[in-house]
Amino acid sequence: MDLTWTKGVLQYLSPEMRLLLSLKCPQLLPIDRSTPLRIHTFHIDPLQLQFNKTTFKLGIIRHFHHATERNLDSEGVQHDVDLFGLEKQSPEFDLTSGEYLIVNVAPKNTEMKSRIDSLNVAQMSKRIREIQGVPGKEAELMDLKNKILPFELKEEGEYSLIPYTHYLKLTVTTGNSKYTERVDYCKSIQDGMKYLTWKLLEGRGLSVGTLKMHAEGFYRIPESLSIHTNHLDVHLKHTDSLNSIFPLLADSSFPLHSVTVYQEAELHNPIVQSSQMIVVAPRAETLQLDRLNHHRVHIRWRSIQEDKVTRLVKKWVELKKGAGTMYTFVVHDDVDIASVMEEIAAMRGAKTDSGEEDNYLPRQVTLPISTSSKLCVYWAEEAEGEQWTLFLHIQDV
């Protein structure tokens, strides 16, 4: 097959199809890896990779020896288990050459975990007694008995009576389509994920619209992976999110088009400061808007905070902010829009465009900022009345 022709075909295949081909046709890997993979959204988790709408997920499944038994957890649990199927601490692993590690793990409280397990066992035992012999509760009863069985076997130390075997399972999901593969569970789930990640990503160049990383755990990533991205949405609670991800990003990513900010300390990071736009995450509700220096900010709070918006506008007037700055807010209640617009309309020099008579929301409020600029506050309806976008846009007079 002609190399140029093959590269051309690969370039126009969906990334999901290319990744599946790379798993099934190893002979294509050298050509495939040399052809950039274009992905709209790439979500990295410690035990899961999501490329657009296709997810590669690893889990440990329990397979009962008797066909009459129902198997639990179709996609498996995402932690290592002992012979009984109870969670155990993953074995330590050594970094190998060419491996980049991001550790985003909170300290484990084993005593608390033991107490929670004991409480769950007591609750399941009580429920089993309640529904034993009750018509229509057969499926629930079976599930409860299967869930409590590992605890009972471990308490009795009955290794020989274990009626199931554990497997490491890969589940690839795209919409309603699902592909699965399982292997013997003889290595840790971390090692299994490393094998899968290297198989899919080693030596690749990715062109990614939005890169996301949020979950707790160990991120084991090949150093040979190079990611060009426009939008960065990374929140790792137990490590320095932005500096941790920096080595994976290609130089061509900078300056980023946007970075999602989760806490005020991130505003001082050079990656954030150099980005063209920042996105304020719903959880970053304590962030003070009047401390932001960016010209383009998108705020995704759960509810709009009138006092912070008013303080921001007053600061713009005080500083005689120039044209070009625009802040947008995702709003889930049009009453919030009305409240903000009323606050700004009450400021000196503000003018209101009432809009249509049957709409109680003003169409626009205009406030002079300086002799050369004005603030225009307006809104747009999204999602058929379930969501709105509120704009604070400083324009030339």
Automatic annotation (TrEMBL):
InterPro entries: DUF3557
Pfam families linked: DUF3557
Protein name, entry field: F-box C protein
Species this protein is from: Caenorhabditis remanei
